[in-house]
Amino acid sequence: MKFEGQKKYALLQAASDSDYVKKVYGGYFNVFVEAYGEEGESWDLYRVIEGEFPHMDDLHKYDGFVISGSPHDAYGNECWIQRLCSLLQTLVAMRKKVLGICFGHQILCRSLGGRVDKSGTGWDLGVRKVWDVPSGAMVIASSDKTKVEMFVFGDHILGIQGHPEYSKDILCDVIDRLVKNNSIEPFQFSTLFPSMQRNHAENVKSRLPEVEPDTKRLYPSPMALLSI
After folding, report:
1. What local confidence, expressed as pLDDT, does residue 1 receive?
2. Catalytic residue, candidates 41, 105, 149, 163
3. What is the structure's pLDDT at 120?
4. Cβ contacts of 187 within 8 Å, gap of 6 or more
5. What is the pLDDT of residue 58?
6. Which regions form coiled coils (predicted)?
7. What pLDDT is stored for residue 192 in this prediction?
8. DSSP label at residue 213
9. Residue 174: how many CA atoms within 13 Å on its side-chain side?
10. Is 172 a catalytic residue?
11. Catalytic: which of 41, 72, 165, 212?
12. DSSP assignment, residue 7?
């Protein structure tokens, strides 16, 4: 899916498409465009996890960038992660609008000089979080489990720990995959008691809202989030 028009954005995809998302939505790119795209925009996809990055000479053509979530550590030293940090520092210097989601939120923080590490409080759509925001950044949302749910840096950078783009079915698929991989903390020990992990997962899914959130109404476009 792609909207052609005046505004131009790029998704920096830091995760491989899950089988479910690929089958139902055609990939995460379509999920993001469906959630955030507006008429009069064009979107490009760069699979940074596979080493696919925009050319430096093309950065000026974009009005903004969105960094997706990822199962990888934002504080890791893989080549593509270090390259992504360098790209983000360039975008910040160019004052490009950048929205980071989950891993994207964390890698933005790292690139700007903040501190990212393991959560220590168990799974909350991830096991890593921002501990200290960069100098000059402002925390605009927090929770009991995560003191930095959202932060802004100037008027052009926004990080969100959660996943506003996820629909209920995608979230349920994520939970099912976490159970299959024995990845929901603090239930890793439940290989001895697999029913405990399954019951925990079903309890989480049962608490999801019955009605899908109106993502378009809440977040008209990724750049609208930066007008807070």
Report:
1. 43
2. 163
3. 54
4. 196, 197, 200
5. 97
6. none
7. 38
8. P
9. 20
10. no
11. 165
12. E
For residues 104 and 127, give the distance between their C-alpha atoms in angstroms, rounded to a whole number: 14
Of 102, 104, 99, 108, nearest to 9 by C-alpha is 99
Residues 35, 225: contact at Cβ < 8 Å? Answer: no
pLDDT at 66: 95
Please identify every stretch of the chain with a pLDDT value under 50, giving residue numbers as ranges: 1-3, 122-123, 186-196, 228
Q: Which one-letter DSSP state was computed for residue 212?
A: P
Our answer to whether residue 165 is catalytic in this structure is: yes
Does residue 116 contact residue 75 with C-beta atoms inside 8 Å?
yes
Domains of the chain: 7-166 (3.40.50.880), 168-206 (no CATH)
Residue 176 confidence (pLDDT): 78
Question: Which of 102, 105, 109, 149 is labelled catalytic?
Answer: 102
Task: Give how far the C-alpha of residue 77 lies from the chain's centroid of Cα atoms, to the nearest Å.
Answer: 19
Distance CA 25, CA 20 (A): 8
Query: Could you tell me which of 163, 159, 71, 69 has the C-alpha nearest to residue 108?
Result: 159
